[in-house]
Amino acid sequence: MTGRFFRICEIISKLAYLNILWIFFTILGLGIFGFIPATVALFAIVRKWVMRDTDVPIFTTFWKIFRQEFLKSSMLGGSLLLIGYILYIDFLYLPSDGLFALVRFGLMVVALLYIIVLLYIFPLFVHYEWKNRLYIKYALVLGASHPHYTLLMIIGIGIVYYASVNIPGIIPFFSISLLAYIIMWTSYQVIRKIEATQIIDEENEEGETNELVMEEN
Hints:
The protein is mainly alpha-helical. It has 8 helices and no strands.
C-alpha cells in the first residue's frame, strides 16, 4: 500500500511539474510562438511515459525537444492555425439561409475533420519523423478510421474540461498535462494497432515470397 501510494504521488507530481513547464515555455516563446513547440515537447515526454520509459529527465528532455523542434513544429502549427482561422471567419460571416445552409453544413463536416486532425497531430509528430503534410494526412486517416478511439479521446477531454471548470485550482497543475496524457495514450493504442497490422502484412508477404521461391526450386 505504501509503495502504491508513493507511485500515485510520483505520477501526480510529474504531471504537475510538466504542466508548469508547459506554461513557462509557452510564455517564454511569447505565447503564440511558444505554444506549439512547448506542446510538442510536452507530448514527447508523455509519449515516453506511455511507452513505460518513466525515468526520462523531464526538464532536460523538454528543453531539448523545444529547441530542436521549434521551427518545424511552428510551421506545422502555423498551418493549422491558419486553417482554423479561415473556418472561424467562414462560420462568422457566412449567411445561414438558402443555399448557404448547405455550404455551412459542408463547413461543419470540414470542421469535424479539422478537430480530428488536431487530436492526432501531436502524437504522430512526436512518434514519427515525417514531412509536415504527412502528419495532417495520417492524423485524419487514423482518427476517421478508428472512431471509437476518437470518441474515447473526446470523452476524456470532456471530463478534464468539466473538472477544470468546477475546480479551477487544478488548471495550473494538471489541465494540459492530463489532456496530453489522455490524447497520447489513446493515440498510441491506434498507432500500435496500425504498426501490428503492418508487421503482419509484411510477414505474410515474406511468407508468400518464400513459398514462390520454394515452388520455383
